[in-house]
Amino acid sequence: MELIGNMLNGFGVALQPINLLFCFAGCVIGTLVGVLPGVGPTAAISLLLPMTFRLNPISGIIMLAGIYYGAMYGGSTTSILVNIPGEAASVVTCLDGYQMARQGRAGPALGMSAIGSFIAGTFSVIALMVVAPPLAEVALKFGPPEYFSLMILGLTLLSFLSSGSIGKALLMAGFGIFLGTIGLDNLTGVPRFAFGSATLIDGPGLVPVVMGLFGIGEILSNLEQPIKREIFEAKIGHLLPSLRDWVESKWALVRGSLIGFFLGILPGGGAVIASFVSYAVEKRFSKTPEKFGTGMIAGVAGPESANNSAAGGAFIPMLTLGIPANPVMAILLGALIIHGIQPGPFLIKEQPQLFWGVVTSMYIGNIMLLILNLPLIGLWVRALRIPYSILFPLILLFCLIGSYSLKNNVGDVFVMIIFGFIGYLMRKYKYDTPPLVLAFVLGPIMEASLRRSLLLSNGSPLIFFQRPISIGLLLVTFLLLASSNIPALRRKREKIVVDVDD
Amino acid sequence: MRRHDLLSSTIWFCAGLFITLYAPQFDLGTVSAPGSGFMPFLAGILMCIFSAVTFGQAYFNQDRKSEKLWENIQLQKLIFVALGLLIYTFFLDVVGFLICTFLLILFFIRFVGSENWPKSIAGAILTSIFCYLLFDKWLQANLPRGIFGF
């Protein structure tokens, strides 16, 4: 009964005209970002983050969340029609989606992808409503040692699942932790590594760093090579899948939703891994696995539902534990902190309007996205015709304005440009950015937890091994690190990495 | 990637070493009461360890296939973007948002995007006015006006 009451309150917030407007804006921008190759949801959210500072936090977070799950919807359009994934979570949709389009079945592929996304998105929102409050109750038992161990696990898991060498990913996590320590020490007020710079006294801001790494870095990588685009000129035709399509896809939708939700909760799991795992599972369950890659609708339904479900699942650790599961959640966490809201186990109790308002808005957003993506599909295809020579200056300009308008400080713009080049070089030399961003956001919380734990235990590091939850989390961390050295498991992980890169 | 990994991990190792050696200036504290330099010191050590691991993996890597990262790329475009961004940022406060933005977008569309002059000028005018109205007038972002007052 309490759940229904909370949901009704949430709908009361989400249905306010201003919140509906920002939810719609988020969904439209998200779909556009998903459709346009070369602009990911992380870059888009960091671009628009400064705009939300002048809004109330609920409207701001509703819009940013809309961009995230909206991008999951839009990403499939380019995968199916052009064989270019709009964002990484739709890479696998190219395999069967594009083949369906070549066979004149673009309509049912797009239809199934949108409907599957809707079903999975709705499932994940409902699961989020059910799972988050009890998890927050458990998290209340967490003290500084548990938080520290949880963050160590999160960073290790993200590094384990990252798309390259674990050593490089952990190196990036170390660099991210260092970046998080630049500026005034929260406990003692001592400025660290600021070198007398007024900009660095407050630390390099989240927005300039993320905009640089993802916005500028992505553009520089794209400009390096000429971008080729071909638009599928064939008619899309009717969008509703046939009865046979439904029969072939029904279990893929169910499995995709479940896989996506659970992988979405895991730090580093997220939508990309979920879509790949779902594809592999569908291939294994299929009676005709050899036909995968030739236009099987289950190969579209499974991954597309998995990536949407994962987008919902990713909100759970951020809203209940204050630990983001991926860079997008790290930016949302930063946004909440900038608005003066501390995400964590108290969020649901202290900010019920925000929690239930945002969660129910996701349900409304899913309905909006279904409408945006089915009847208006032609409009999004037209967006693909925007030449990159016009698009990239706009994105660069938004990055410049976004980082300047934070504090009207040119220093922040320089920080962004520097991180843009660091991001570009990281892409080039195959260093993953997500562990860096996650560690940068978690760094200050981690430092506070570590120092408080050591104060509590009079300097004994044994405190991390004496409390059951903490030792359990550290044990999982150790097992993960150890498993990366087991040849069979390492090969399996490397295979996933190769698949993702391809 | 072997040669590139050897180079990049050496740079990261030097960065980690610098952080580790510089952090004690902020007071490492004691184990029971860690000071301000404690966490950067740990982060620096982590960076040193994992850059050494990356270096070791690259060094013992049997794959001698060389990958040329800096060949066949449009280096001129990257240099133009870098210069454009830096010059824009240097002059933003002095010259003001509208003029700086017009010139930057014109430069990017014409010389990086390789569009013709009329398209570039139209794109630059529309973009700078649209962004000025959106951010300065609607969102009240207080964009710099510079010596010309706009």
Q: Specify which chain pair forms the largest interface.
A: A-B, 64 and 67 residues
Largest sheet of chain A: 2 strands, antiparallel
Note poorly predicted spans of chain A. Answer: 497-502
User: N-to-C terminal Cα separation of chain B, in Å?
Assistant: 50 Å
Determine the N-to-C terminus distance of chain A: 48 Å
Number of domains of chain B: 2
Question: What oligomerization state is this entry in?
Answer: heterodimer
* Widest sheet, order of strands of chain A: 1-2
Give Rg of chain B in angstroms: 24 Å
Structural class by SSE content of chain A: mainly alpha
Write the layout of secondary structure elements.
The complex is a heterodimer of chains A (502) and B (150).
Chain A: H1 2-14, H2 17-35, H3 41-52, H4 57-82, H5 93-102, H6 106-139, H7 144-160, H8 166-181, E1 183-184, E2 191-192, H9 198-201, H10 206-224, H11 243-265, H12 270-285, H13 298-313, H14 315-321, H15 327-338, H16 347-350, H17 352-373, H18 377-383, H19 388-407, H20 410-428, H21 434-456, H22 463-466, H23 468-483, H24 487-501
Antiparallel strand pairs in A: 1-2
Helix pairs in contact in A: 1-17, 2-4, 2-17, 3-4, 3-10, 3-15, 3-19, 4-5, 4-6, 4-13, 4-15, 4-17, 5-6, 5-13, 6-11, 6-13, 6-14, 6-17, 7-8, 7-21, 7-23, 8-21, 10-19, 10-20, 11-12, 11-13, 12-13, 15-21, 19-20
Chain B: H1 2-22, H2 38-59, H3 75-95, H4 97-112, H5 117-138
Helix pairs in contact in B: 1-2, 3-4, 4-5
Structure, described:
The complex is a heterodimer of chains A (502) and B (150). Chain A is mainly alpha-helical and 502 residues long. Chain A has one domain (2-501). Chain A has helices at 2-14, 17-35, 41-52, 57-82, 93-102, 106-139, 144-160, 166-181, 198-201, 206-224, 243-265, 270-285, 298-313, 315-321, 327-338, 347-350, 352-373, 377-383, 388-407, 410-428, 434-456, 463-466, 468-483, 487-501; strands spanning 183-184, 191-192. In chain A, strand 1 (183-184) and strand 2 form a beta hairpin. In chain A, helix 4 (57-82) runs parallel beside helix 17 (352-373), helix 6 (106-139) runs parallel beside helix 13 and helix 11 (243-265) crosses helix 12. The longest helix of chain A is centred in the N-terminal third of the chain and has 34 residues, at 106-139. The radius of gyration of chain A is 22 Å and the shape is globular. Mean pLDDT of chain A is 84; it is low at 497-502. With 150 residues, chain B is mostly helical. Chain B folds into 2 domains: 2-59; 75-138, no CATH class. In chain B, 68% of the residues lie in helices and 0% in strands. Chain B is built from 5 helices and no strands. Chain B has helices spanning 2-22, 38-59, 75-95, 97-112, 117-138. In chain B, helix 1 (2-22) packs antiparallel against helix 2 (38-59), helix 3 (75-95) runs antiparallel to helix 4 and helix 4 packs antiparallel against helix 5. The radius of gyration of chain B is 24 Å and the shape is flat. The mean pLDDT of chain B is 89. The chains are: A mainly alpha (502), B mainly alpha (150). Chains A and B meet through helix 8, helix 10, helix 19, helix 20 and helix 21 of A and helix 1, helix 2, helix 3, helix 4 and helix 5 of B.
